[in-house]
Structure formats: structure tokens, C-alpha cells
Amino acid sequence: ATIEKPRAPIKYDIFFFSALFFLSGVLLASLNLKFWILVIALFMTITFLFLRVVLKNRCYTWLMVLSLFILIGSLYFTWDDLRFRNDTNIVFDQRLEFKGVIVTNPTFKNNSQEFFLKLVPPPEGNILVRAQPYPKFSYGDEILLKGVIKKPFSDSYAHYLEKERIS
């Protein structure tokens, strides 16, 4: 019997596992497990460092580096989320006049139409508009609206809209 020497990682293996660990960090950060991300990543890094030293196997070096991608993914998600929240400048529950550009095709439901509107500053951000069925609007229309911008009615719906980058 012959003992095979472990092969060096191939470029697509490195890319695949880097992306996998990065996305794992994004997932954990999106679940608000920020403290546990640090614990998990440090535990994995120390474990792989220990195995690298004890077993003298270079593959554990790659795993140690990859475990740091969990932290990088988490930091990216946190940075992007903070940037989204800081770039939003919307006044809620006040009657306003605001202008914007329709950034999705309107969907028609019962007696209304819905679309996402990118506001033209000074209020900045994207909102979900529910309007009467007529006049019909189209993607790319620039419109002037008068009304009240309200916060979503539930936290779960608010999180869904945030995922779509809607304030």
C-alpha cells in the first residue's frame, strides 16, 4: 500500500471555500450573532493552528486562513448595514410632498398598485409606494407625490424590506 501525500489546494478549491466561509460570516452577522462570530472564528483559528503545529500538515494553514473569512464576511455585512442605515434620511408619519423615480415595475393588487420609489434628495432612500390603480405608473417614471410615509407594520416585514434596501 502506498501513502499519498496530500495535494496542494487548487485555485477553484481556494475560491470556493473562501466564498463559503465569507458567506457563513455574512449569514451569522445577519442573524445578529456578532459576539458568537468572534468566538467561532477564534476557536476555529486556534484549533487549526494547534492541528497545524501538532500534525505538521500545511492543509490546516489553509483552514486557519479560511476561518478568518468568517470574520471578514461578518465585518462586510456590518459595514454595509451601517452604510444603508446612515444613507437613509426619511421623515415618517408627517404629510409631505416628495419626488422620486420608480425603480421597479408596478404590481397591481385588488384596488391598488405597488412599486419601489427612489427618493430625490433632500429625503434620501427607497420606499414602497401603495397607490390607487389609476393613473398607471411605469418603471423609470419620475413622479411627485403628496402623502405620509409610514414605517412597516411589523418587524418581520421591516426586515424583509431592509433586505430589498427599502427604508
Write structural notes for this entry.
There is one protein chain. The chain has helices spanning 11-30, 34-55, 59-87, 155-163, and strands at residues 95-102, 107-109, 112-119, 126-131, 142-148. It is an alpha+beta fold and 167 residues long. Strands 1, 2, 3, 4 and 5 form a 5-stranded antiparallel beta sheet that branches. A hairpin with a 6-residue loop joins strand 3 (112-119) and strand 4 (126-131). The radius of gyration is 24 Å and the shape is elongated.
Short recap of the structure:
With 167 residues, this protein is of the alpha+beta class. It is built from four helices and five strands.
* Poorly predicted spans: none
Radius of gyration: 24 Å
The average pLDDT is 80
Main structural class: alpha+beta
Q: Summarize the helix and strand pattern as letters.
A: HHHEEEEEH
Number of H/I helices: 4
Shape: elongated
State the end-to-end CA separation. 64 Å
Helix content: 40-55%
Strand content: 15-25%
Largest sheet descriptor = 5 strands, antiparallel
Number of strands: 5
Would you spell out the secondary-structure blueprint of this structure?
Blueprint: H1 11-30, H2 34-55, H3 59-87, E1 95-102, E2 107-109, E3 112-119, E4 126-131, E5 142-148, H4 155-163
Antiparallel strand pairs: 1-3, 1-5, 2-3, 3-4
Core attributes:
single chain, 167 residues, alpha+beta, five-stranded antiparallel β-sheet, elongated
